[in-house]
Design a protein that fits this description.
The chain is an alpha+beta fold and 163 residues long. 43% of the residues lie in helices and 18% in strands. The chain has three helices and five strands. It has a three-stranded antiparallel beta sheet with strand order 1-4-3. Strands 2-5 form a two-stranded antiparallel ribbon. β3 and β4 form a beta hairpin.
Length: 163
């Protein structure tokens, strides 16, 4: 993502609304909405007297301009599905903060940190895909409800690592 991309940070007190979705709908697409969200990560470190210190920042973002919906085909139920995608990204932001906090890195941590980030990012993408596959993009309501409960429970489990 380039630095100019408009982004909205995940906030437990603010759910997504359809007005947050500012992208052009893909009319050739069979989906009625699409959420573009992800985890941004940056870090820096320095070694002084053989001791390494690290600063890092992890944020979970929603990208309004890259997210879209078809106004005549959506519902509050679909909006909750899209919110759950955003919540899954937040869950992995928390998992990344936890991993960064608990990992002992060498004095040259760049490769280790990147690998950690890659593993968490791959797991995030995999869960997003699994969520859509198992719910058939929200069409299987009982499964959708189970997923929402699961994600809410996981967020609670990782509450200590929210930003």
């Amino acid at each position: 993502m380039d630095g100019d991309t408009v982004k909205m940070q995940w906030n437990e007190n603010r759910q997504l609304t359809w007005s947050d979705f500012k992208g052009e709908p893909d009319m050739g697409d069979s989906f009625v909405a699409s959420t573009n969200s992800g985890v941004s990560f940056s870090f820096s470190y320095k070694v002084k007297n053989g001791k390494m210190t690290m600063d890092y920042e992890v944020t979970c973002n929603f990208y309004p301009e890259l997210s879209w919906y078809k106004p005549d085909l959506v519902s509050p139920y679909i909006l909750k599905h899209e919110q759950t995608h955003f919540d899954i990204s937040e869950l992995y932001a928390r998992k990344l903060r936890k991993a960064m906090e608990e990992t002992s890195f060498s004095n040259n941590p760049k490769e280790e940190v990147n690998k950690l980030y890659q593993n968490i990012e791959n797991a995030r993408k995999k869960l997003q895909t699994k969520f859509d596959f198992e719910t058939d993009h929200s069409k299987i309501e009982p499964v959708e409800i189970q997923w929402r409960r699961f994600v809410a429970k996981e967020l609670k489990k990782y509450e200590r690592w929210k930003s």
